[in-house]
Amino acid sequence: MKNYSIENVEYEIVGELTDKELAAVLHCFKNSSSVKKKYKKIL
Q1: How much is the pLDDT for 23?
Q2: Is there a domain that residue 1 lies in?
Q3: C-alpha Rg value of the chain to the nearest Å
Q4: Are 39 and 28 contacting, i.e. CB atoms less than 8 angstroms apart?
Q5: Is residue 6 one of the residues assigned to a domain?
Q6: For 15-40, b where at least 16 C-beta lie within 10 A, e where not — what string?
Q7: 1, 2, 25, 31: most buried by Cβ count inside 10 Å?
Q8: Predicted confidence pLDDT, tens digits, the chain (43 residues)
Q9: Residue 42 belongs to what domain range?
């Protein structure tokens, strides 16, 4: 596990998304009504 220090924030990266999981998350963001248009353009 890697630790990254950011001032006043502590967290650990415990895993990574598979390609299938990442595609599902991106699809969800692209089709969500609560995600702003500027972020949808980036995706």
Answers
A1: 92
A2: no
A3: 14
A4: no
A5: no
A6: eeeeeeeeeeeeeeeeeeeeeeeeee
A7: 25
A8: 455 666 777 777 778 889 999 899 888 888 888 888 887 787 7
A9: 17-43
The token pair at 33 is 């009504």
The answer to whether residue 39 is domain-embedded is yes
Residue 28, sorted as left (phi over 0), alpha (psi -120 to 50) or beta, turns out to be alpha
Q: How many domains does the chain have?
A: 1
Report how far residue 30's alpha carbon sits from residue 16's, in angstroms, rounded to the nearest whole number. 21
Q: How far apart are CA 27 and CA 14, in angstroms?
A: 23
23: closest CA among 43, 6, 3? 43
